[in-house]
């Protein structure tokens, strides 16, 4: 049986996740979606909003979607849904997991790699993060969870843009791009977002296209130059840069990697910095290989795959992006340079 794609929907408290979910659960979009409300508290308030009869664990909606509330273990919930689907008791072709507003999406994403039964039935499609345009800056300033949610995203949905001016929206988008250059940012009005912006993104899959916003590289160099600022620098320019614990950096090289050296170095990195490495992904040129190697990971879980053949007319090289908390960029870059042939 084909694997069921799963989407993790995350975002800080009040960002608009439930509004978006209500739309998914009620609108005639033709998909059969199982929504898992991953609430850890005793009282599940969202459940009252989503479903009238809160005594049931699994509730079917009139558009063919199902809503399932989990107060305990996500693995059990996913396994139960898979068993019911295999037995023909439930029909669904997608799963959306809503995390709590204060959740770190990392452990939820790792569930799909750690548990054999979950991995046998589901494929992690993408992490989609809703960011509140009105309060997003302050939440990123004050809450590491908000930074983690942005750093983990394969796609960022910006809500409440109608409540703020374009300058504020632009500043927030620029900051999100610094935290996570690989996630496209789309605007959402009152949960009105095309289903194609949430489902079937294939954001977590290994692929050859490592999407890094080209502007990000320019931003990074620009920020770097500021260290040489003298007293004449305008203060306002500095003021615009918020120093986030969670940030991204890119490594690029036009020389191939030595496989053994790189394996050893990446293994050591993950052992030492794994808990602080939120997401990392790359397309690599390995010595003597005629195919690309695609690698990615979440925290300590790292995997690689063979990608497409290098074309004759293609410039060979490696490109890697690391998103994490207070990662020592220089250590990473210097170490990777020493793994080159």
From TrEMBL:
Keywords: Chaperone, Hydrolase, Nucleotide-binding
Cited InterPro entries: CobW-likC_sf, CobW-like_C, CobW/HypB/UreG_nucleotide-bd, P-loop_NTPase, Zinc-reg_GTPase_activator
Recorded GO MF terms: hydrolase activity; nucleotide binding
Reactions the enzyme catalyzes: GTP + H2O = GDP + phosphate + H(+)
Recorded GO CC terms: cytoplasm
Domain CobW C-terminal: 246-340
Residues of the signal peptide: none
Family: Belongs to the SIMIBI class G3E GTPase family. ZNG1 subfamily.
Function: Zinc chaperone that directly transfers zinc cofactor to target proteins, thereby activating them. Zinc is transferred from the CXCC motif in the GTPase domain to the zinc binding site in target proteins in a process requiring GTP hydrolysis.
UniProt-recorded name of the protein: Cobalamin biosynthesis protein CobW
Species of the source: Noviherbaspirillum autotrophicum
